[in-house]
Design a protein that fits this description.
Layout: H1 2-13, E1 26-31, E2 35-37, E3 41-49, E4 54-56, E5 62-63, E6 71-76, E7 80-81, E8 87-95, E9 99-102, E10 106-112, E11 117-123, E12 128-132, H2 155-178, H3 197-212, H4 220-237, H5 248-255, H6 262-280, H7 287-312
Parallel strand pairs: 2-12
Antiparallel strand pairs: 1-3, 3-8, 4-10, 5-10, 6-8, 7-8, 9-12, 10-11
């Protein structure tokens, strides 16, 4: 009787929670590719085996801890039960750092009624993916692509900025006409004005693309092509480099001849390279990835314009 009571107490301790894998359980995560480039969607295959007395509370695997910097979960599907009582599913993850990267650990809440376990957590095995740079061999190493922290402007704010610039230009023209003509400044002393119109046009164009919500309607390629065209037109109109008729590789070589910061030049290659994969390789990222791509393009324009203004001063 005393031994039976001891076993009852031990089983009672298991009724609150448990983690990791118990006997007759397994949660395998297998990446479909062993090598990928920065920002590429990596598909993960899930295979879950349970004990005959196990019951899942949820069939959508979720990370058991906060994601590391440079890792983003693009989508997670619901597990489907197979005839042999196994469960199969998939998720897509993107990595933004190079080298050997660990796949996030996923978990599934479950119960095992026979053993008196009301709630436990089945965690997945470890898996790794080798992430390569998108730059060709011999180029400078690609730095981490980090999310740009910035306030999200609503659409009316962008329109107000464009209108303010237009009104400022009109006012400047009126004042210029009223001023008396002065002797022309010698050519060697004249300084070129700082041109900001291409930046404002690019920001307004990105706001229009965001409002169209093309990825949500299955037009991901149109979304990526419009963002890439906006970036190229900005470089062309500011006179930085001829960008509309060059390939991404030719454009990167031209940008490498410009002054630092070189990390911004590498971000041009990362964004335009992602657009090339959608246009020429048939990739179709999800809406969340497409939205992040537009945000990264807006952040790159802000940082590039700020660097250009400092250089002009």
């Amino acid at each position: 009787m005393m031994r039976a009571a001891a076993w009852a107490i031990a089983l009672g301790c298991l009724t609150t929670s448990a983690a990791a894998q118990l006997p007759n359980q397994s949660f395998q995560v297998v990446p479909e590719v062993r090598h990928a480039t920065v920002g590429d969607p990596v598909t993960l295959d899930f295979l879950v085996r349970l004990d005959a007395e196990d019951l899942l509370y949820d069939t959508v695997p979720k990370p058991t801890a906060a994601l590391r910097d440079g890792v983003r979960i693009l989508s997670t599907g619901r597990l489907q039960r197979e005839p042999d009582r196994t469960y199969r599913g998939q998720a897509q993850v993107a990595f933004y750092r190079t080298g050997r990267q660990a796949v996030p650990i996923f978990g599934l809440p479950f119960m095992r009624g026979v053993k008196g376990m009301t709630r436990g957590m089945l965690t997945s095995d470890s898996a790794f993916v080798e992430i390569d740079s998108i730059l060709p061999p011999g180029e400078p190493p690609l730095k981490d692509i980090r999310d740009v922290v910035r306030p999200r402007w609503p659409g009316w704010r962008s329109i107000a900025v464009v209108l303010a610039v237009v009104l400022a230009i009109i006012a400047a023209l009126i004042v210029r006409r009223r001023k008396p003509k002065r002797s022309a400044v010698p050519a060697e002393r004249a300084l070129p004005p700082i041109v900001r119109e291409p930046y404002d046009e690019a920001v307004a164009r990105l706001a229009e693309i965001e409002r169209e919500e093309w990825p949500a309607h299955g037009e991901t390629d149109r979304h990526y092509d419009a963002v890439a065209d906006t970036l190229r037109r900005y470089l062309e109109e500011t006179g930085a480099v001829p960008a509309l008729t060059r390939t991404t590789g030719e454009l990167m070589r031209a940008l490498s001849a410009l002054p630092p910061p070189h990390d911004l030049q590498q971000r041009w290659g990362a964004l335009l390279g992602a657009a090339d994969r959608v246009k020429f390789a048939g990739e179709r990222p999800g809406p969340a990835t497409a939205e992040a791509f537009l945000d990264d393009a807006r952040g790159l324009l802000e940082r590039w314009q700020a660097a250009a203004s400092i250089t002009d001063v």
